[in-house]
Write a structure and sequence with these properties.
The protein contains 7 helices and 11 strands. By secondary structure, it is α/β, with parallel strands linked by helices. Strands 2-1-3-4-9-7-6 form a 7-stranded mixed beta sheet, with helices on both faces. The chain has one domain (about 25-215): Flavodoxin domain (Rossmann fold), CATH 3.40.50.360. The protein has helices spanning about 35-50, 85-90, 95-100, 140-145, 150-160, 180-190, 200-215; strands at about 25-30, 55-60, 70-75, 100-110, 110, 120, 120-125, 130, 165-170, 175, 195-200. Flavin mononucleotide binds near residues 107, 108 and 147. Flavin mononucleotide binds next to helix 1, strand 4, strand 10 and helix 6.
């Protein structure tokens, strides 16, 4: 026969062994143009769930506000600037997000590696499959200047102010020229300097996702 006395949670009781952290309720908001960033978001969500967190993944266009969540992660691709729905979400909710642990991830086709570890004090992770050293660090080309982390993220941080994300990751994305019109092709090839193909680095994405729980709890 079972006991009808409900056991106390083992949590913080003295001598009860290691403390189990309470699950965070995380809202993961994702924007996409062609779908590949949603798969990146799914991998990040899986890693957070593996840490015991509850993750509610929503498309940026229909995502709820952050009320009721313990932390928020917003992801989206660079599409001539960070995807407008991701930007709109953080702009619209920046006052509420300011009081919550928040992290961002950006998928892109090009990123110039000039050695920085933060943008305006916000720590950044640069996927090594994406970040490329410039030909001549003393004289960056127009494409290299365009693809600098501070160029991509500076604009996002300006729109997000006073929100300060705890971490921002830049991941290599996936670029399929067959889905693009002629102007888009010209832009990504001539301005961005992108190489078509699926460059997603799942190891880097999952490692970043696995470390995110600790960052959001800190
Ligand atoms: C119209 C267009 C504009 C883009 N602009 C940029 C850009 O400015 N910088 C960059 O690094 N990548 C740029 N990209 C590449 C995308 O960020 C990359 O392909 C991303 O993985 C797409 O994600 P999605 O499949 O979720 O839409 C652009 C792609 C498209 C189609």
């Amino acid at each position: 026969m079972g006991s009808d006395v409900t056991p106390e949670p083992a949590g913080d009781a003295p001598g009860a062994g290691p403390t189990t952290a309470i699950a965070l309720r995380i809202l993961l908001v994702c924007a996409t143009r062609h779908g590949s960033t949603v798969e990146v978001a799914e991998a990040v969500a899986e890693e957070l769930r593996a840490c015991g967190d509850e993750v509610d993944q929503r498309p940026a266009a229909e995502a709820p506000g952050p009320a009721g969540y313990d932390a928020v992660v917003v992801g989206g691709p660079m599409i001539m600037g960070w995807h407008r729905q991701a930007t709109k979400y953080i702009k619209q909710h920046r006052r509420d997000l300011e009081g919550l642990p928040t992290a961002l991830f950006i998928t892109a086709a090009s990123l110039t590696e000039t050695g920085e570890t933060d943008v305006q004090g916000v720590p950044i992770f640069k996927d090594p499959w994406l970040a490329k050293a410039p030909r001549d660090a003393a004289r960056l080309s127009r494409k290299e200047r365009y693809a600098m982390p501070q160029h991509y993220l500076g604009d996002v941080l300006k729109k997000a102010a006073p929100l300060r994300p705890r971490r921002v990751a830049f991941f290599a994305g996936s670029l399929d020229l067959t889905t693009m019109n002629i102007l888009e092709k010209l832009f990504v090839l001539l301005v961005v300097g992108a190489t078509p193909g699926d460059g997603r680095n799942w190891k880097a994405i999952r490692e970043w996702g696995a470390g995110l729980d600790e960052v959001l709890r800190a």
